Amino acid sequence: KRKAPSNEDNLNQDLCEFLIELSNYERNVNRNTFKYNAYRTAASTLASHSTRVTSGKEAQKLDGVGDKIAKKIDEFLSTGTLKKLENIRNDSITDSINLLTRVSGIGPAKAKQLFDSGIRTLDDLHKNQDKLNHHQLIGLKYFDDFEKKIPREEIQEIETIIKESVTQLDPAYLITICGSYRRGKNESGDIDVLVTHPTYVSKGLSTKNSAFLLKQIVHLLEEKKLITDTLSLGAVKFMGVCKFKDDARRLDIRITPFDQYYCAILYFTGSDLFNKKMRAHALQKNFTLNEYTLRFIGCTGVPGNPVKIESEKDIFDCIDFPFKSPSERSV
Ligand code: DCP
Ligand code: MG
Ligand code: MN
């Protein structure tokens, strides 16, 4: 699902590509999230590095490149390939698992389980639908559509429909499309909608309460024939499908109390690697940051009350992290 960081002037494109291939292998086949993230972080660092890396030693000086990855870079630079990569490519399990995990709802563990029961192809999946849950069945049904990126213009039009609809319920609702769209990308993998309302605060907003509001919004968008399927609907998060033009699109909606809005918008804007970096930085400054709150961790090690946050920038300032506009967060 993750592709190599696309950067027109990426001088280390070939290195990034092999690192991403290794990262996908670690996630999909080995289910090793730690290595998956390590390879992805290194790839993202190399992608934004302004010069061509000419040795592993040079690469190792950069953020997120360790000695093992440095060795692989040396091997790749001197031989044009990697033994490990050749082995991975020759292993029949790799292709099957990589394909199966492209179905929405099928993760690495489920893919392995399916592989072990003899399933290799989408055709096999169609013949074994009894082995799939509701989400995975929808993922299979819309396999081709979900592989397609969503043009920015289409998201803009969907944004208008969602805003018009939801403000019919109550004009005070605040709606922001987050994810890669908010980071200014020309196309996105899905549509990430964040909803809040000034009178809904975390103290007053029970789980039941937010679940009701979210359900109300989803039902309305179903009535408007925008939402076509539900993958999951919880108290704070809807995952589903919408259709505006020809293709079915993945749509995520999160609802957040107003006092947690800026932590939510920061989280939901991403990227996920950027969030990891920023959270790690927060911890170094004795703060714990998540999609709900920013809290100071005192000498007891227990996080205190949420810091009062009135903008995204407040969060950066509080942990002394240089402010990045959304378009600068695609690392
Ligand atoms: N997110 C995160 N960690 C995850 C998954 C998501 O921090 N494991 C956050 C950051 C993401 C945001 O949620 O930017 C939205 O998740 P998406 O998977 O929709 O990712 P993007 O919108 O960034 O990219 P895409 O264009 O592929 O949807
Ligand atoms: Mg997204
Ligand atoms: Mn999403």
From TrEMBL:
Ranges where the Helix-hairpin-helix DNA-binding motif class domain occurs: 57-76, 98-117
Molecular-function GO terms, alphabetical: 5'-deoxyribose-5-phosphate lyase activity; class I DNA-(apurinic or apyrimidinic site) endonuclease activity; DNA binding; DNA-directed DNA polymerase activity; metal ion binding
A Pfam family of this chain: DNA_pol_B_thumb
GO cellular component, one term: nucleus
Gene3D superfamilies, per the entry: 5' to 3' exonuclease, C-terminal subdomain, Beta Polymerase, domain 2, DNA polymerase beta, N-terminal domain-like, DNA polymerase, thumb domain
SMART domains: HhH1 (SM00278), POLXc (SM00483)
Alphabetical list of PROSITE patterns matching this protein: DNA_POLYMERASE_X
Catalytic residue list: 72
Keywords linked to the UniProt accession: Cytoplasm, DNA damage, DNA repair, DNA replication, DNA synthesis, DNA-binding, DNA-directed DNA polymerase, Lyase, Magnesium, Metal-binding, Methylation, Nucleotidyltransferase, Nucleus, Sodium, Transferase, Ubl conjugation
Family indicated by similarity: Belongs to the DNA polymerase type-X family.
UniProt-recorded name of the protein: DNA polymerase
The species this protein was found in: Laodelphax striatellus
